[in-house]
UniProtKB/TrEMBL annotation, chains A, B:
<dbReference type="Pfam" id="PF07687">
    <property type="entry name" value="M20_dimer"/>
</dbReference>
<dbReference type="InterPro" id="IPR010158">
    <property type="entry name" value="Amidase_Cbmase"/>
</dbReference>
<keyword id="KW-0378">Hydrolase</keyword>
<dbReference type="InterPro" id="IPR011650">
    <property type="entry name" value="Peptidase_M20_dimer"/>
</dbReference>
<dbReference type="InterPro" id="IPR002933">
    <property type="entry name" value="Peptidase_M20"/>
</dbReference>
<feature type="domain" description="Peptidase M20 dimerisation">
    <location>
        <begin position="249"/>
        <end position="346"/>
    </location>
</feature>
<dbReference type="InterPro" id="IPR036264">
    <property type="entry name" value="Bact_exopeptidase_dim_dom"/>
</dbReference>
<protein>
    <recommendedName>
        <fullName>Peptidase M20 dimerisation domain-containing protein</fullName>
    </recommendedName>
</protein>
<dbReference type="Pfam" id="PF01546">
    <property type="entry name" value="Peptidase_M20"/>
</dbReference>
<comment type="similarity">
    <text>Belongs to the peptidase M20A family.</text>
</comment>
Length: 418, 418
């Protein structure tokens, strides 16, 4: 990414009106990269090259490295005179006061924890970009209308304590506090003990007293800069994705039942081959997804009994379908259910039977248009100065997030503007 | 099956010439069924109905029940004055001498061991049909030209000692004696001990001294009556399959490599989805098999990493392809290899790579035309008297065996007639 800017919680018209005043406010790219690499000294792992920065990260939530970078975060924001607080889930909030101190702040942020084999930017970029924005405001002594801040959400990855976005979940009141506190870590320590989240929050000194709830610490808006996790921008040689929402998705487990007959003695037309049927269903789901401009994925498939010269009597596979529109996702599901049934009954020789089990139903989320407009305006401005690498010359693009639903939960919890 | 008769080791012309003399020689169906049920008292298991004969069988090779039925076999054949012998693999041979005692006998037979959840006819019918034939000859005091006998092959199922047709394999010199003797049973006994085949042969008193080799005990021909293991005769409402040979088959393990990207953030056209590719290959293999009048089966499929919302980077699946003709099987394989490559490169979005590993190559076997003719003549004669249940009125049918290769090994070992 060649340049980074943030949208602000202002109406697009306001933003354009005030543009002149902000002309000098540019991110210091060198400082930003330096801050990222400085923070990555805590918990660095998996060296892949000779350069000091050529490592991955293993900064599992609430481990010693996480404790250290949390201290670094606190020092950084306090050096700029931010109001700093920690809630019951260890979420760190830093707010740079604006003229209006009673309105909720516009927050930027992400998470500082990583996967055990994590990279140097996932989450980390979002925090550092927020901090760099505060630094620019601070060095130019800008007084903003409302307050602006940065948040570090605890265990957003869900890699150590197995619930993704658990602490933003508690803040948005989607997850009960006790559920979160009682989560046991995935792996035991060297003494065979699995600690809970609350124990580890206490151990590293981040069990705050502030209630973890958007009611006690409301946001006006939340912006998150994130590296692209899909390959779309890179493929199309664009620089910035302006995310308009999160796609809807559903997870299913589908069981195909046939008959386990012998590969050598059962003629093709006498078969109830559940693997062949499942293969046809997987191919069809992908065709439907393409037609509807959605996504379909089978990530797990099991078959029984599992012998080279015997057909499977049972195949179970997962189906993950996604679409940016709830309605289109419902149509994809409907098409899959109808066409799967047809394949099982009429295109599987002697026929197979199907069972559907829904595992997850996550509706689509549409971000607030003012927030999207603010990001879009910034993206347009930044991209004007850059070399036009994409086929159509446009370097930014509207996108729908394919990632998890933490943001969704938070957005839903945001107080709606009239 | 309404009636049972055997072909004899005679040229069809001879058989027809002598037909008149054999007119009275008919299988005693009641006696045959009685003998089957009598033998099934040794090792009966898995009751499924109230009638005494409504059980399955668990007569694992060389267990106590197998020892008992072997004794019953010996008593039965000796009561008819047969020459009886046991070889180093516990194979039991019973020969009823003909006029010409120097020519090798025509043997009938099968196996008395069963799967742990076996039925009452698989193998058992072949032995009993042979014994019934000897009884008919015996009670009519027929002196045959050559000698005629019955063989019981040890551990033909391979269920207890894990090598199918191992003892006929030693006799045909396809399996070394020591390899067979040293086979350990699949499951340990209550003391945790796994016995070898040799130990168990010794324990039940069936470690014979006769060398286990077709060179020491040659056959003129081998006939086996077997229940149908596929559904073809039943589907077509026919009574007898005249088996002309065994189909060719090959087993492969095919590895599809793609990339494990996220189900939510990877657009369809940017994917290297190894599961989708594998599904297309399985569907295509079945299409090719149908076109070529062969068989294709995928009985095992594994995928990694195995996560609902992540594409598999690697899918490995088995492919079992079969055809009665070696040439057509080679063409099926060629079609699969070419079309699979095309699908992986051109119909899998960003492409997947393929690796083929051949596990088994078992060429087709064609049975001797005189043997087939003898069975066919008997089948025609028997079927004349029965109700014509099939669509075309013919109750017998030429077939190709889809079962394993024990017979192939034995047939290959048979001395060829000029």
């Amino acid at each position: 990414m060649a340049s980074i800017e943030f949208g602000h919680q202002k109406h697009a018209t306001q933003f354009i009106k005030m543009k002149h005043d902000f002309a000098a406010l540019k991110v210091n790219q060198d400082r930003l990269m330096q801050a990222i690499h400085e923070g990555c000294e805590y918990g660095q792992a998996h060296r892949y090259g000779d350069h000091p920065t050529e490592t991955g990260m293993a900064r599992l939530s609430l481990n010693d490295a996480d404790k250290e970078i949390r201290g670094w975060f606190k020092t950084t924001v306090e050096s700029m005179g931010c109001a700093y607080s920690v809630d019951q889930m260890g979420n760190q909030f830093a707010v740079r006061p604006g003229k209006n101190r009673t309105a909720p702040p516009v927050m930027m942020g992400s998470h500082l924890d990583t996967q055990p084999t994590g990279g140097r930017y996932d989450g980390i970029l979002g925090i550092n970009a927020g901090l760099e924005t505060l630094k620019v405001l601070h060095e130019h002594q800008v007084q903003t209308e409302g307050s602006v801040g940065v948040v570090n959400w605890t265990n957003e990855e869900g890699a150590r304590f197995p619930m993704m976005a658990v602490s933003s979940g508690v803040w948005s009141e989607a997850v009960p506090l006790d559920t979160a506190w009682n989560l046991s870590e995935v792996s035991a320590d060297k003494d065979g003990i699995k600690h809970t989240m609350k124990q580890e929050l206490e151990r590293i000194g981040y069990l705050g007293e502030q209630r973890a709830s958007y009611k006690d610490f409301p946001f006006a808006a939340h912006f998150e800069l994130h590296i692209e996790q899909g390959p779309i921008l890179e493929m199309e040689k664009r620089k910035i994705g302006v995310v308009k929402g999160a796609q809807a998705f559903k997870w299913f487990e589908i069981t195909v039942k046939g008959r386990d007959t012998h590969a050598g003695t059962t003629p093709m037309n006498a078969r109830m081959d559940s693997m062949l049927c499942a293969a046809k269903l997987i191919v069809r789901a992908n065709k439907i997804a393409k037609e509807k401009d959605g996504l379909a994925t089978t990530g797990i498939l099991n078959m029984a009994p599992g012998s080279i010269n015997t057909m499977a009597h049972t195949v179970t596979f997962t189906l993950d379908i996604r679409h940016k529109s709830d309605e289109q996702l419902a149509k994809m599901e409907e098409d899959c259910r109808r066409q799967f049934q047809d394949i099982a009954e009429n295109d599987s020789e002697k026929g197979c039977s199907l069972e559907w089990k829904q595992l997850v139903d996550s509706p689509a989320v549409v971000f607030h248009e003012d927030c999207v407009a603010a990001v879009q305006d910034s993206a347009i401005e930044v991209c004007e100065e850059l070399e036009k690498t994409s086929a159509d010359g446009q370097l930014w693009k509207h996108m729908i997030s394919g990632a998890g639903k933490s943001l969704r939960k938070m957005i839903e919890a945001l107080p709606r503007r009239p």
